[in-house]
Amino acid sequence: MSDRLKRRIKQLKFLASMFKMAIEEFDKVMGPETIQTIFRLIGEHQGKEFQAKLKEKYKIDKWDLKMFAEKVQNEVLVPALGEDQSEINISGEKIEIKIKACPFKSAGIPISNKYFCTYTEGLVETIAQESLGEIIFTTEKLRSVDFCDCKFRINIQ
Amino acid sequence: MSKINDVNIILQDLEGKVADIIGSAVIRTNGLLIASALPSESNERMIAAMSAALLGTSKRSAEALFNGIFKSLSLELDKGNMFLINAGRVILVAITKKEPNLGLITLEMEDASNKIRNIFQMEE
After folding, report:
1. A124, A127, A144, B94: least CB-packed within 10 angstroms?
2. pTM for the structure as a whole
3. Which residues of A lie inside 8 Å of B (Cβ-Cβ)?
4. Do residues B26 and B94 lie in contact, with contact meaning Cβ atoms separated by under 8 Å?
């Protein structure tokens, strides 16, 4: 490993530990509701940006379920989680999203407080809403509450 | 949908009973809006997010000051007031005119929050 890469990894580890400490202090001063809300807002914001970028990149006028599943899988989930760490299944007017890895957990950040889950929920729900219109979004399972994967369900209205 | 209808009826009833209230909403503790009767010009999403943040900070203040439990928050502003009351899994928020009838608002908000608490407790 080059010295430059070693320095870069050290910097990133420092930033990750600062992030972890900042979250702990935010929790002490402002409470979990505040952090969950902030993560949710970040997720919603990112969801809007992802959807707009995908729409522009693939010149999409009207989304269908298959297109939604393919683009979200390949352009959003795989880059963040890696290959084979997520699944999107379509059944009629329902979409099931399964996420097997947690990037926050992999980075050594405790996930049991569910702060980061609100980010993922905000991200996925917003992309779905912006792409498919009126939906009902449900979180069925979360790794942060001891399930082996996260499962989200989208019902098209 | 019937839970949302029930909550909307409670909000309408609250606004009908207290003329000083110009808007109200029920918000999840993670900042998501459940039902709202806020003025049309208001940014509902941000009010919902800020209400959850106010609840979080208020709960921490209650713990730090008296090792207590948060009940409600009143925010006095130059053009009106904001009231926030804990309703179990959700928060009831009301926005009022300047110098409102505090006694009436507190009483009616407590009543409404108890009804809302019951609706969402039944969900568990």
Report:
1. A144
2. 0.83
3. 28-38, 40-41, 118
4. no
**What ipTM was reported for this prediction?**
0.76
pLDDT block averages, 10 residues each, chain A of length 157: 90 88 89 91 94 90 90 92 91 92 80 82 93 91 83 92
CB neighbour class for B111 (10 Å; exposed up to 12, middle 13-18, buried from 19): middle
Buried b / exposed e along B53-62 (16+ C-beta atoms within 10 A): bbbbbbbbbb
In the block, which residue shows the tokens 């990894």? A9
Q: Which domains does chain A have, with CATH numbers?
A: 31-156 (3.90.1520.10)
B52 touching A (Cβ < 8 Å): yes
How many domains does the structure of chain B reveal? 1
What's the CATH number where B39 sits? 3.30.450.30
- The Cα A85–Cα B99 span in angstroms is 56
Query: Which residue range forms the structural domain that includes residue B107?
Result: 2-117
Whether residue B122 lies inside any domain: the answer is no
- B84 belongs to a structural domain: yes
Could B32 and A28 be called an inter-chain contact, meaning their C-beta atoms sit closer than 8 Å? no
